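Researcher: We are triaging several targets before committing to wet-lab work. For this one, the compound of interest is zinc ion. I'm pasting the protein sequence and the ligand SMILES. What I need is the predicted three-dimensional arrangement of the protein with the ligand bound, expressed as structure tokens, so it can go straight into our comparison scripts without reformatting.
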Amino acid sequence: MKIDMLGTGAAFVDPDRAQSGILVTLDNGTKYMFDCGAGTIHNMARANANPAEVKAIFLTHLHHDHICDFPLFAITGWMSDRPTSPIVLGPKGTQGFCTHLFEGGAFDADFRARGAYPLRQGNLAAIQPDVREVSPGLVYEDDDVRIYCDFVDHIPREISECFGVRLEAESKVIAFSGDTAPCDSMVELAKDADILFHECTFPESFIEFRSKSGVGTFAHTSPTALGQIAVDANVKKLVATHFGHFESTNQVIHKYAKHHMPVDEMGPHLMDEVVRDIRRNYNGPLQMAYDLLRIDL
Ligand SMILES: [Zn+2]
């Protein structure tokens, strides 16, 4: 299988990173996607893939940096002659999110204008997703893959359930954390995985800053804790992702990050600190993700 990192950033608009998104392409060409943050569909084109080819998409939770590009995913698939509904797996609320997008929803004008063309009337299924709100356990299975999920610990469950996922295909296992503080369920999902893609949103000191600032959640995984998770799960490779823009030198980001992190400490040097802290506990293969990183497994 091939894995394309379509987005490796977090909640801010970042010129150097799209928001969260991972594309998995099996050797037979079947595609699955995990998260669909802003910028991921443009990066999908850069990765030479088409949303119409994605069989199923898993939204780990309903924070905007994991779902912003879903309307673009659906509309682009519609315009690319996708013949069937995309399968959308996600937490409670996913059905409502999808239902309010097209007919009678936020993109109703687009739906009515584009849908007036006979060609587009022929594949309305492309914007009528087959939504399956999931519960922990085996949530999807076809001839090629099995996908399991479990709750992880990010925001209060009554606001949005947050899931980590495990995909088994071609005798390989990959796991993806979504957003989470360290939790046992993610260690279980990642057990003996060939690759664990895990959030690493902030350096140690930034998580501490956020726990005091009261702006945004600080329920993320510190680099030191991430190394321990990789050890506990016995993964063969760790890919850290979902970086919270802490390494950015962009002045616009610095301006809107000022309530969220210690701006004076931001910069690319922090990536070295993050690696050093992951290495306190974990000595196996490690990669710091960047947009359009391609991994052949
Ligand atoms: Zn996020």
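Researcher: Any quick observations?
Model: Residues 6 and 42 are 8 Å apart (CA to CA).
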